[in-house]
Amino acid sequence: MKVDFKTLAKGATMVAATLLATTAAQAKDFRLGLITPPPHVWTKAAEAFGAELAEQSGGAHSVTVFPARQLGNEAQMLQQLQTGALDMAFMTVAEVSNRVPNLGAFYAPYLANDITHAAAILRSDTAKGMLDVLPQEAGVVGVGYGSAGMRQILTRGEVKSVEDLKGQKLRITPFDPILDFYNLVGAAPTPMPLPAVYDALANGQVDAIDMDVELINVLKYYEHADTLLISNHMMFPMVGLVSARVYAGLSDDDKAMISDLMAKHVDSTLDAYVAKSPAWTESLNGVGINVMTVDAEFFGPVMGEWESIWSAKAPSLPDLRAAADAAK
């Protein structure tokens, strides 16, 4: 039998070309959006994720990070994820809860005692299981949780009791659990994007803000405030998301690699907040404003009233409370 070496060589070349084309088709520069500014813990974690993905994929994949709302607000980015126009995002669970109300359970007032307790809750099997419905209900794949610390209240005026918050225009992230909370307090919750907050405090457009100690420090919101309530009244989780459409087109190996690496770097933000929050909080004692620590009693009946509203909307709330008790 005569072997046609020219035909074999031609066939080998065609196979190699096919393999190269397949590899090229799978290689991708993923786009990842955030609302946080470049110095923020989330943005740094996103950049670290991109760097490690490029390394682990041997340069086949890369991630371009778009911080500071460059791709729109979170509602717009979630829509882009659903269509596949955006590949990935680090996003507040708050925004996703607007589509999946069960995630509102994370915002139960005083579910977490502090940032360390919040991290343990977010790492629980109960919390992780709450992500399972996201592909069907929101068109995204959730790989794991991060954090933006605990919520505090910074005000332009003096506050001695919860009565002093009544009627105040108080900046919030626009989602139902926190909207209900401040409506029950008697404040006037005012949705506002992060880039507008500093000037809004300066010119009196808002009287107070709901914010974490990192951004109060980094963005110097305290420069236009008189009182800081260290309340730790809610955790504020983040979730790492991949477009379900994009995810479906990945190989099994790429799905595993991307999910594992993103989960790792999203989770790293929990450790960052546990480590840094005490120093951020302490530094605010020296900026010339009144700092007052308050607890659940400060808010009176608001906790029970919030619970009565959200026990029906968020069926996972009892299980999450049980996980919180187990994590203490």
TrEMBL record:
Protein's name according to its UniProt entry: C4-dicarboxylate ABC transporter substrate-binding protein
GO molecular function: carbohydrate binding
Primary subcellular site in the record, as a coarse category: periplasm
InterPro entries, alphabetized: DctP_fam, TRAP_DctP_sf
Entry annotated with the keyword Signal: yes
GO annotation terms (biological process): transmembrane transport
GO CC terms, sorted: periplasmic space
Signal peptide: 1-27
Intracellular or extracellular location(s): Periplasm
Record's keyword terms, sorted: Periplasm, Signal
